[in-house]
Amino acid sequence: MAVTDISMLRERRKKKKAVKFLKKLVIVLIVAAAVTAIALTKDLWYPKLDGILTRIPVPNNTAELAEGHFPLSIEGGASYQLKPLDNSIAIVDDSHFFVHNDDGKLIFSAQHTFANPIITTGNKKALIYDLGGKSFGLYSKYKNIYSKSTDEPILLARLGSNDTAAVVTGSDKYPSVLMVYDANGKNIFNYRSVSRIIDVTFNSDNSGCYITNIGVSGGFIVSKMLYYRFDHIDYDALGNPQPVWETENLETLALSVRLYGENNIIMFGDTICAYYDTNGNFINSYEYKRRLVDYSSNGNIAAMTFINDERRSSELVTIDCSSGAVNEKTLDYEVLNLQVSGDTVYMQTSFGIESCTASGEPISSVELDTEYEDFLRMDKYIYLLGYDEINRIDYN
């Protein structure tokens, strides 16, 4: 009897296996038939589906922090600065200058003695100066090119794309004095200003610069730009260099002056944003409706964020300076920092990174688990600046 029961059990198992095999076979045949049908009718359905697919954002960004050499630890806390430098990142803290590749590997480091170090970068070099001090130096990502000192305290410095350096100091006789040095550290231009120089911007081929001054007129703070060339300088009877052109006073406190297009200029002020053509002629302006939080520009695109104190939300304004098109968009979150890269606007919020088109249409977003002080978009990465460390995430 026991033998008979085992035989029957084996027979049942064989039948179950056969049924399972038949089910799998049927499924495989159905899938194969469906694939064949899809392939044969591709010309009918693919064009329509392709149009839909191109409109669906691809979730290829990740909030996963990079490993390996990241995070980069910073000594001294939040007093450091980070800038892009020749496909690498340059960091200055209270005592050192560091260069890391995009994987976080240390390429170069040097100690400095600046009390208040400030870094500004061009394409392949970094200019580090002591704000309020009298020293500055030019660095590549592998070495120190030169170091110099000034007679008076340094107020600001800028670096051109060909390593031409502009250094502005105070003076006993003038509110500001500008000295321009070539890539080898040779002094090639000097200008003594009767007004306070607030910014210096090199033209596209670094053959001249736009000097932005601020002053007071009619009880209001005003800003104006003067354009000088280094290769052709006219002097007045007192030996002062004469500008090629200068703009009218603009009733605002200039914050930054940048180029767009072919030597056209955009001025970000504290109350208004104005843009000019290559000859300094006023083109148009955008007057702020709320308090300015941050601003950025790249190419022809300028972007600004404003805070709505009542609603605790932000407003994004983008301007296509080439066409004059202005887009205003109310956001349901608060923007902390802003950067324009290519034709995309990147915004840091309290919960992550948002990106949108120049017209304000959302592209993608990434949530972050940790709060950061600032960020830098470079190539396919976003570098996150924490209090005492720097992290990196992918953001294609």
Which descriptor suits the 3D outline? globular
Rg result: 30 Å
Helix count from the secondary structure assignment: 2
What would the average pLDDT be, to the nearest integer?
86
Q: What class would the helix/strand composition place it in?
A: mainly beta
The helix content, as a percent range, equals 10-25%
The end-to-end distance, rounded to whole angstroms, is 71 Å
Topology overview:
Blueprint: H1 2-40, H2 42-53, E1 72-73, E2 81-85, E3 88-92, E4 96-100, E5 106-111, E6 117-121, E7 126-130, E8 135-139, E9 144-149, E10 154-159, E11 165-169, E12 176-181, E13 187-193, E14 196-202, E15 208-217, E16 220-229, E17 234-235, E18 241-242, E19 245-246, E20 254-260, E21 264-269, E22 272-276, E23 282-287, E24 291-298, E25 301-308, E26 313-320, E27 325-331, E28 335-341, E29 344-349, E30 352-357, E31 362-367, E32 374-378, E33 381-385, E34 389-394
Antiparallel strand pairs: 1-34, 2-3, 3-4, 4-5, 6-7, 7-8, 8-9, 10-11, 11-12, 12-13, 14-15, 15-16, 16-19, 17-18, 20-21, 21-22, 22-23, 24-25, 25-26, 26-27, 28-29, 29-30, 30-31, 32-33, 33-34
